[in-house]
Amino acid sequence: MLFLLYLLIFISFNDLFAQLPIVSIYAETLGADVTTGIIGFIVGAYSFSNLLSNLFSGLLVDKNGPKKVLVAGFLINAIILFLYTLVQTPEQLLIVRFLNGLSAGIITPAAFTYITLYNKSKQQNTGRTMAYAGAAVGLAAIGGPTYSGIVSARLGQPEVYMIICGLMVLGLVISLFIKPLQKEQEDDVKTTDSSVKNVFALLKNKGLLIAFFGSIAFAASQGILAYMLPLKASSLNIENHLTGILISTFGIVAILFFLLPTNRVYDKFHNEYVLPVGLIVVAASDTLLYLAEDLTMLFVGISCYGVGFALIFPSMAGLVSKHSARTIRGTAFGIFYGCISIGSFLGSSITGAFTLTPNEAFMSVAVVLLIIATTIIIVARRVVIHSH
Question: How many Cβ atoms are within 10 Å of 74's Cβ, its own excluded?
């Protein structure tokens, strides 16, 4: 059962990662003019609408149960992904991209809510479960761009969207066959305590605030990494294809950490402490990237980043599960993924607005992460004592 849930997470994140190398190119083939800025709007439309639908999805999950939301999300997303093959103009692509972000944002909170509730019902180790879920995300981050780049080069961008659409259909089939959670079986009543009021209640929970602020900080650092790493490599006269290998290295290191006995760290130590330690490791990684003068140093820095990601992601998800009641778990995950979207937007946009160089960006984010990690450690002590 857990394998099927991990597969659903892999499929849902594949939608995002597989499109990364081809969206701007597809827009150009449809006649988008680089000078008008419409390509930037097309690329950013997904993240913007994704942010809008994350919270909405969480409310739906708490009201109707995660299985029903998964089924609806995969079905709608498959239809919208098929529309990519029919667009004829950049404006149509912009609309479809916006709708794609909305539909994709429905799926992820539902998938993580299901896996945490199922995990609790079976009394499994939450930390290790989140680690394997993180490995599924990492595999999507590596595999998605790889196959989409190859397929688009040989067949074209529409064929890539057909493959992603097919994966969504597979996700739909799996969602139809997974068992409803006990709560969904006991009653089919549409009334729960879930409402907008719960959002404010969740935002007062210090344990959840640690996860939310940690997710914004880490997502911002990821946005800066994606923006600045190719520029840093270029400044060192490193060939373009090696930049892709660098990013893959980060994913491989994270997956190894998730799957090897190192994943016991999530159950051995409190997530409230593992998260800031991960942020400190990422800050160290950014410092190494700032100091890097050759390819070897870049590999060391990006490998360190992979360890930081491996510490952070399961810890954040674990905190959301730990500090939210079952009846509002979906809303909590909706806010969590909304914070990730906010962080991704802030990281790249602020860096671009201040026209920072790669070295300035890496050093700046390292300082900010250290400040946030220190703050979280101070707050975490009170949260851990209170929870016990």
Answer: 29
117's tokens: 């509730």
Q: Which CATH number fits domain 194-388: 2.30.110.10, 1.10.10.10, 2.40.50.140, 1.20.1250.20?
A: 1.20.1250.20
- Pull the structure tokens for residue 262: 């190192």
Query: Phi/psi at 31 (nearest 5 deg)?
Result: 100, 15
CA distance 212 to 193: 22
- d(CA 122, CA 107) in angstroms, rounded, equals 23
DSSP 3-state assignment of 189?
coil
Q: Note the pLDDT tens digit of each residue in 288-306.
A: 999 999 999 999 999 999 9
Q: Give every CB contact of residue 167 below 8 A, 6+ residues apart in sequence.
A: 11, 14, 15
- Rounded Cα distance, 320 and 332, in Å: 6
Phi, psi of 20 (to 5 degrees): -55, -45
Which region among 186-195, 219-228, 278-287, 356-365 has the lowest average model confidence (pLDDT)?
Answer: 186-195
